[in-house]
Amino acid sequence: MAVVQGPFMSVNARGSAGGLTASFVRGGIVMKLKSNPATKYEPNLNRTRSILGWLSRQWGELTDSSRDAWAAWAIDHPGTDKFGDPFIMSGFNAFIMLNHQAVRLQHGLAMNALPPEDPPAAAINGLEATTGVGAPGDIDVVWSQNGMGIADDYWEIQAAGPFQSKGRKSVISRFKWVAQVAGDILLETLSGLDEGMWYWIRVRYVAEDGQITAWMAYQATPMLTP
After folding, report:
1. Is position 114 within any domain?
2. Are residues 78 and 150 in the same domain?
3. Per-residue model confidence as pLDDT tens digits over 83-92
4. For the chain, how far is it from start to end, CA to CA, in angstroms?
5. Domain identity same for 75 and 136
6. Is residue 207 in a domain?
7. Residue 154: beta bridge partners?
8. Sign of dihedral through CA atoms 122, 126, 128, 134?
9. How far apart are CA 193 and CA 130, in angstroms?
10. Per the confidence metrics, is the pTM higher than 0.85?
11. SS3 string of the chain?
12. Residue 188: beta bridge partners?
């Protein structure tokens, strides 16, 4: 860091250029190297990038009629932005979203060239997560459904935690995938969790074609060692 005169050929320079940042302090204009924080490592980041790249190439090979079908599906199925307002995604984004969900949960490259004709077979309408009874570190999760889930679809389960105390609401950014079960099963036991800590558990129904439904969340603490 150095105090300089006329940085970037200007006596009032602010901001960054060429790897340097100019800022004003009491002693004058200060120049320092622009910081470049490292990207947070995510274990599944490379796999996600590979899936998205593969799907983008598949979109390029679709016929015009298939692309029109995806655009029409997107119009009929508006999404919700982070402010809770509805928005219409593009046909390309609809294709990527549904197929990415399908590939991620099926653990294989299976691409749907056309959008689904029917809505998901089920959706969650009740959830309870309780201290497990099988082994220390277990949480038992049971849920109910609207509709009738089918074996080819999935219930996706995510967890956030551990937390030292029970919280008022879930922390969305902390949720991570922990399990999935077939769409005709309505219970699961999560194992290996930290004893004496609290977890948020959430569940949703995901159709084989990638259509997703709303989450429902619940809090629980694992079974303690006797």
Report:
1. no
2. no
3. 878 889 999 9
4. 58
5. no
6. yes
7. 182, 206
8. negative
9. 13
10. no
11. CEEECCHHHCCCCCEEECCEEEEEECCEEEEEECCCCCCCCCCCHHHHHHHHHHHHHHHHCCCHHHHHHHHHHHHHCCEECCCCCEECCCHHHHHHHHHHHHHHHHCCCCCCCCCCCCCCCEEEEEEEEEECCCCCCCEEEEEEEEECCCCCCEEEEEEEEEECCCCCCCCHHHCEEEEEEECCCCEEEECCCCCCCEEEEEEEEECCCCCECCCEEEEECCCCCC
12. 141
**Is-contact 115 206, C-beta < 8 A?**
no
pLDDT of residue 14: 57
Angstrom distance (rounded) from CA 175 to CA 170: 9
Tokens of 7: 């940085």
- The parent domain of residue 164 ranges over 122-220
Within-domain flag for 113: no
Looking up tokens 């077979």 gives: 121
Per residue in 63-106, pLDDT (tens digit) is 999 999 999 999 999 888 778 788 899 999 999 999 998 888 77
Task: Give the torsion sign (CA, 166, 129, 125, 205).
Answer: positive
Decide which of 197 and 42 is more confident: 197
132 & 214 share domain = yes
Q: Which amino acid is at 133?
A: V
Same-domain check for residues 212 and 175: yes
CA–CA distance, 131 with 55 (Å, rounded to integer): 41
Bridge partners for 159 per DSSP: 176, 201
Least-confidence region, from 73-87, 117-131, 152-166 = 73-87
